Amino acid sequence: MPPKVIAVANQKGGVGKTTTAVNLTACLASLGQKVLLLDMDPQANATSGLGIEKEEGGSAYAALLGQGSLMEKIQQTNYDNLDIIPSEVDLCGVEMELARMDNHINRLSLALEPVVQSNIHDIIIIDCGPSLGVLTLNVFAAAEHLLVPLQCEYYALEGISMLTRVMDQIRDSGVNPNLNLLGVIMTMYDGRTRLSQQVVAEVREFFGEKVFETNIPRTTRLAEAPSFGQPIFYYDPYSAGSAAYEVLAGELIKRLQRLAAQPA
User: Fold this and answer.
1) Homologous superfamily of 4-259 in CATH?
2) Which residues of 191-208 are buried (b: 16+ CB within 10 A; e: fewer)?
3) Is the pTM of this model over 0.85?
4) I need a labelling partner for 234 at 20 to 30 A (CA). Which of 65, 66, 68, 200 fits?
5) How are beta strands 82-85 and 75-76 bridged, if at all?
6) SS3 state of residue 145
7) Looking at residue 187, what DSSP letter applies?
8) What digits encode the pLDDT tens for the residues 126-155?
């Protein structure tokens, strides 16, 4: 069975998007899933968050321009079952080059196809940058599922309508008719505050069952882990953040299994 390709996206910055991508992949890998993390954010925070050095020529840049293979960019990490295609600063300039090319929205789909067909991985998670530019549109065209991290604040739903509208356009235009919203993840949750509780209630009312039961807490240990190049599961395995991402990973696997069991 080919791997599930999941985009982690939110055009609003500071919502825990990369934190979720890094820690979710690590927890999925710890549960026995063979996982590939594709870092498509030019800031390369997911790359450094797994302790991988940013090296010239290591990103998906050349493959997006049809000048190399994405398979050759796959690197093993220090963690079992977890591979990465890192990012680096050259991805900053690829958007302008892609915009001048034919079929520019489908460049990642074409480059990713051999990786998908190889069946090496069970799940491919793609970390997007905080924008809805050409790179993110390429990810939407290549992915099967979309995960949206939302911060527990009053502006959480601001901009989410734009994200879902773009997703609908990608699907309805025929670029990627299979793209679906896999779920919404509430991040930076503080159960002691009425604000967090109210925001979660509002988002659940808006998205219903699409919202994962697991809320990711706001913790100092989660914020510290990237500076040590480690997912929270390895930096502090007994922390609240680690426990939350472990439960979220299990919830995600069950959701994927339910979707796979449904008739086409």
Assistant:
1) P-loop containing nucleotide triphosphate hydrolases (3.40.50.300)
2) eeeeebeebbeebeeebe
3) yes
4) 200
5) antiparallel
6) strand
7) E
8) 999 998 889 999 999 999 999 999 998 888
